[in-house]
Amino acid sequence: MTPKLALETGLSPLQAQLLINRGMTDSGSALSFLKLSLADMVDPMLFKGMDDALMLIREAADNKDRITIFGDYDADGLTATALLYNFFSSFDLPVFYYIPNRLEEGYGLNKKAVETIGKNGTGLIITVDCGTSHERETALAQSLGMKIVVTDHHQAPENFRPNCPVINPHQPGCPFPFKDLAGVGVGFFLAVAVRADLRERGWFKTRPEPDLKEYLDLVALGTVADRVRLMGQNRILVNSGVETLVGTRWAGMKALMEVANLQDSEIMAEDLAFRLAPRLNAPGRIGDPDIAIQLLTSHEPISAKNFALRINAANSKRQSIERVIFDRIEDMLETRGGVKDRRTLFLGAEDWHKGVLGIVASRLVDKYYRPSLVFNIQDGLAVGSGRSIDGFNLFRALSQFSQLFEKFGGHAHAAGFTVKTESLKALEKDLESLACEMLGDEDLVPAIDVDGELPFQDITSETVHQLRALSPFGEGNPEPVFLARSVEALESRVVGERHLKFRVRQAGEGRPLDAIGFGMADEHPLEGKTIDMVFTPELNRWQGVESLQLRVVDLKEQKN
User: Fold this and answer.
1) H or E element: which one contains 172?
2) Which CATH class name applies to 456-557?
3) Which of 74, 79, 36 is nearest to 221 (CA)?
4) Which residues fall within 8 angstroms of residue 331, CB to CB, at 6 or more apart?
């Protein structure tokens, strides 16, 4: 039966059902979701603190004061830093950047960084993707004679009392209506407000005015990388940013796409998440974020290509380090008899690289679907990262044992922590006991939210285009997945060591379809088996030829 929403909006029945599945049940919310126009961006002046921030930036611009952009070492912070650095550079202001070293300085503003910035003559610091919870450091900057503006998107601490202009939709009393921006999104809105303020004052009568549409590819990359909800303003930013990647003006973005083997005419949000962002994050993870920011701020193609190649090498090194640690964990688990009697995974050693522990913990969750904490031991301290599953709020769980930690922080699905080695056994025991109370066997089986059954006879190129009309996909707007029952596997083979390539045909449907299951090599051979499978239809492009393909998320053999 055709959904009422399809009749009201002119959407296909499939599109209407997908929107209903995502909570958009009336024509107003559905059409608003589909309308991706920059004209619908919210006024940046609705940010609390924006007037005060503009006053400090205006003074710095008029006086030609040195401006330092202080960013974070991950993709969100790096793209936000590059955005503001490139923006202020475009009208010849003396602007510099500072990216802290993850392994030596940790996250956010720190005393050493502020003192270093103060010594180089900076008049104004603008933070991106950090600063809300760094009251002491902002006060230190002011005591050293610098002005400071904080732009951030993290939750404000209790009893938050800013001592400088703060642009953060989460701060108490901020009327900006969209709260889910990434750090680079907040930075973009600041740039929009600064440009409007300078334009009003005649600043661009003698200077070229920057076209902020050209910065949206940086915004899209940072937004997707930070896994914020791709709804509302973020959908507009990411959609426009992906379009901007075609013919990007930034030499560094072009070089990054080249080393990732991406053709700009075919890029989707998923490519930013899985192919560009990991590369951009890699140098910071292994200790040298400067390569990434140099890439994003480079205007010379040869230099950009060199930085991109170094980033690619860093990513390969990161993958190698991660693989070694993961394999060691697998050996440790096998020695302990596996995971079947465990509700949590808690593993560490003395030589594990701190920069990749969060990724390793994520891989453990993906494979074993249990809250997983992974740590490095050095000088009597265990420093690590944890990742969790639905139904087990990791931050809340760790909070129950706060007396055991030197420090910890995070949210429901991810956390970082430092604990003395003598407290490790107590923490492992207490965490496992809590998980046993909270998690049943059924909680340790990952669920896949399926949008519905989709017969092979209904899968065409037009079907794929209808699905793509609902993109960009990501947090809050997952890529559609469908169920097919009683599918006959005609043949299968392993490709790229870990992936499964096979052909399938549904009963009563003469046309076979190609399918691929990433990381599913263990399912080979499939030939002759009858399976149920969950998949997303897509168009596969190979040597200029486009064909239908099913990207399989899960499969299960039917038993007689």
Assistant:
1) none
2) mainly beta
3) 79
4) none
CB-count exposure of residue 297 (10 Å: 0-12, 13-18, 19+): buried
- pLDDT tens digits along 452-489: 999 999 999 999 999 999 999 988 899 999 999 989 99
| Mean pLDDT, rounded, of the chain | 92
Strand intervals (E) in 16-117 = 66-70, 95-98
Q: How many CA atoms lie within 13 A of 89 on its CB side?
A: 14
The pLDDT of residue 206? 87
- pLDDT of 322 > 90? The answer is yes
Instruction: Name every residue whose Cβ is closer than 8 Å to that of residue 432 and which is 6 or more positions away in sequence.
Output: 342, 343, 344, 346
Return the structure tokens found at 322: 């991660």
- Does the domain formed by 339-444 have CATH 3.10.310.30? yes
Q: Which residue has the tokens 């890439």?
A: 295
d(CA 284, CA 261): 22
Taking the domain 44-310, which CATH number applies? 3.90.1640.30
Residue 441: name the closest of 325, 313, 340 by CA. Answer: 340
DSSP-assigned beta bridge partners for residue 540: 547
The per-residue pLDDT for range 128-178, each reduced to its tens digit, is: 999 998 899 999 999 999 999 999 998 887 788 899 999 999 999 999 999
Strand pairing report for 166-167 and 147-151: parallel
Query: pTM for this structure?
Result: 0.91
Domains in the chain: boundaries: 44-310, 339-444, 456-557
- Which residues share a beta bridge with 70? 98, 127
Task: For residue 406, count other CB atoms closer than 10 A to its CB.
Answer: 12
Distance of CA 525 to the CA centre of its chain: 35
Digit-coded pLDDT (tens) for 190-248: 999 999 999 999 999 888 899 999 999 999 999 999 889 999 999 999 999 999 998 89
How many angstroms separate the CA atoms of 265 and 257, rounded?
A: 11
Q: Residue 264 — very low, low, confident or very high, per pLDDT cuts 50/70/90?
A: low
Q: What pLDDT shows up at residue 560?
A: 64
| Cα–Cα distance for residue pair 50/193, rounded to 1 Å | 8
